[in-house]
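Weekly sync, protein design subgroup
Attendees: M.S., D.O., the rotation student, P.L. (late)

Item 1: inverse folding check
M.S. brought a backbone from last month's batch and wanted to see whether the design step gives back something sensible before we order anything. D.O. pointed out we never logged the input encoding, so this time it goes straight into the notes. Structure tokens as presented (226 positions):
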């Protein structure tokens, strides 16, 4: 999942980037509302974390811009404004969640996972496709009874495929959601990581789950009609 963090406290911003990156998220960050708007105009984020009191454009203005674009991207306000009226204003303005500083990083992670599940209409923390399971809290992935060890990027790619099970995803869409603006790798990065996943997920199994639709992209499902 690709996340944007707009937070003008640089130390906190950096801590959030490090924390979420370590959990396998692809993270872009900025320090004012104007830059946040510029990024939102060109990138389709899975979640956006906004401070309210930012320079150049506050969080309310950024949120209004997101909704005026017609984007339903989940937005979490991360702010020191802690009164009930502030929370009501934030949620009524279109935010999906509201977390007051100081906060627990564990709670932030849990809220992000909850927003991801909601945005994909998933109610269970366990994702399943055939006998492949992924626990989104513990990050344990199994095919049958066998635990599969994945790198953070492999996990992120598989999670995105599982959240979109049965849906054809183009290479560009996958790349845009799994890699951030700092990525400077090769143009075949998606193909390379799909190959890594196939070896770990499908090798040795009669039922293949990761399928290539030539010229279009990839789909994760138990069966593909011939």
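Designed sequence read out in the meeting:
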């Amino acid at each position: 999942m690709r996340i944007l963090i707009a937070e003008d406290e640089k130390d906190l911003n950096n801590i959030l980037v490090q924390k979420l990156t370590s959990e396998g998220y692809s993270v872009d960050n900025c320090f004012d509302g104007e830059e946040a708007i510029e990024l939102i105009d060109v990138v389709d984020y899975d979640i956006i974390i906004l401070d309210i009191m930012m320079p150049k454009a506050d969080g309310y203005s950024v949120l209004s811009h997101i909704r005026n674009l017609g984007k339903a991207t989940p937005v979490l306000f991360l702010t020191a404004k802690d009164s009930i009226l502030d929370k009501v204003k934030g949620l009524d303005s279109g935010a999906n969640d509201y977390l007051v500083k100081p906060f627990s990083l564990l709670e932030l992670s849990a809220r992000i996972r909850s927003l991801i599940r909601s945005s994909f209409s998933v109610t269970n923390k366990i994702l399943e496709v055939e006998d492949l399971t992924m626990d989104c809290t513990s990050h344990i992935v199994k095919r049958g009874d066998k635990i599969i060890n994945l790198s953070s990027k492999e996990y992120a790619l598989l999670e995105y495929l599982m959240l979109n099970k049965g849906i054809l995803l183009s290479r560009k869409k996958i790349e845009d959601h799994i890699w951030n603006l700092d990525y400077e790798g090769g143009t075949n990065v998606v193909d390379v990581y799909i190959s890594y996943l196939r070896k770990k997920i499908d090798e040795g199994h009669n039922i293949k789950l990761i399928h290539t639709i030539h010229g279009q992209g990839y789909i994760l499902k138990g069966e593909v009609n011939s």
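Discussion: The first strand starts at residue 2 and ends at 6. Residues 105-119 form the longest helix (15 residues).
Action: P.L. to compare against the previous round before Friday.
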